[in-house]
Design goal:
Length: 248
Amino acid sequence: MPLWAQVLDDLRARLTRGEFSSRFPTDVELVRQYRVSRHTAREAVRRLQSEGLLEREPGRGTFLTSRRIEQPIGSLYSLFRSVEDHGYEQRSIVRFLEERYEDEAAAALQRPPDEHLVYLERIRLAGEEPIALDCSWLPAAIGRPLLAVDFSHTALYQQLAERCGVNPTSAWERIRPSLPSREQRELLGVGTRQPAFAIERLACQGTKPIEWRHSVVRGDRFSFVARWSHHQVDTSFEPTSAAVPKGA
């Protein structure tokens, strides 16, 4: 095998063993360790980059790529379950859990503006890394039993079912790119130009809204994935041969 391929195989094995958890070697260190040219070392590193295992930052060095968490689109998911399904321990830092008035949230939940609402705000962590800021509003008439819950390691919908007898059966969700505010950046530990996803969700039981949520999710740690099969493809807008103009 070419020298770069031999170095590449050994680096893959070392990555699998977790040798580079603190930092990845520089080009100079790789040249010294493997007794190869700088060109050979860089080619092996370039291949690891193309596989999505490493990231190079000019002036800072080479770093291991953090694993992204995939979220499905088109289904009612639990961030708690998604994080743990990817092998991370899910933990939350609860910033607020209290009753409040909020006109915009009450309108979203189709409630009078003077009605009490339960407000839950959490920083969501994967391992010890902040990945999302979640803000949930629920009618107090439904969610008041949640005020006694320790949300540091549990799922909101699980507690809704167990304590309130309520299960969301449908929802809509709006996802858009966003640059976090200064406060959000500080809470999530991201830089000034780090992109994020702003997510708004309204969950219902039947036709009755039970939760309005807005979240800021780190764009470098999440991917949203849609899956479909041939049988689900909508062909209603496929043009017929007669409808396609020549040269189109």
